[in-house]
Write a structure and sequence with these properties.
Elements: H1 12-32, H2 39-46, H3 50-56, H4 60-82, H5 85-95, H6 102-119, H7 121-127, H8 134-158, H9 164-185, H10 190-212
């Protein structure tokens, strides 16, 4: 798929303007949809000129994909925090245990991403227009593979007895299952969403128990 080039701002003032444009566009896309939004409405919301937007983005697709890249960076950063040594140690202290509390990590990951999806206008802009860009869909799949690679490293510390190829498969199924359930719950009322996510935790825990609880 053709990727539309866009100018990367070098100066701080230009970077701030691009940030305003993307924030305004995210709100427009989340509230009205990409098709109904216009460059003019984005410019008005961003308190900038139409020409300023075209200076950095050739069209709405380029803006949408830039918002998608921003969302994927949010995902990458959040996941890195959740599986960091500091976060794992904090969860272990709550358990008063030296073992890696993998169930707590699963629960914290699902809860944290559910909260991101509820609060991030970037996510809402992307998810409510998910069919707009095949390139973003492909990038999302690549992100899941990246997260699975990171999860497999954690599994390697927990299940050294499990062959590497099997750990990779476990990590892939875990990430894809969590991702699917998070997206399924994203547009549901809070009570229904919480029920789905609680079941997702049980599902993933039961799937991993035979491997991560065996020594």
């Amino acid at each position: 798929m053709k990727r539309f080039p866009r100018r990367v701002p070098a100066q701080e003032r230009s970077r701030e303007r691009v940030a305003r444009i993307l924030d305004a566009a995210a709100h427009e896309f989340a509230e009205r949809g990409v098709e109904a939004s216009t460059i003019e409405s984005i410019a008005e919301r961003a308190k900038t000129s139409v020409g300023s937007i075209y200076q950095f983005f050739p069209n709405k697709l380029a803006i949408y994909e830039a918002i998608g890249e921003k969302y994927l960076e949010e995902v990458r950063a959040l996941f890195a925090v959740l599986i960091s040594d500091e976060a794992v140690a904090a969860l272990a202290r709550r358990r008063n245990s030296d073992e890696i509390p993998w169930r707590d990590i699963i629960g914290a990951t699902i809860d944290s991403f559910a909260n991101l999806h509820r609060t991030s206008v970037t996510f809402r802009a992307i998810w409510s227009n998910i069919t707009y860009s095949r390139r973003f869909f492909d990038a999302g799949q690549a992100m899941n593979r990246e997260l699975a690679d990171r999860a497999e490293i954690v599994f390697g510390r927990l299940a050294k007895h499990v062959p590497s190829a099997r750990r990779k498969l476990l990590a892939t199924v875990t990430i894809e299952t969590m991702s699917a359930m998070l997206l399924l719950s994203a547009d549901k009322p809070r009570v229904q969403a919480n029920a789905l996510l609680n079941e997702a935790k049980v599902l993933v825990e039961r799937y991993l128990e035979p491997y991560l609880d065996s020594h």
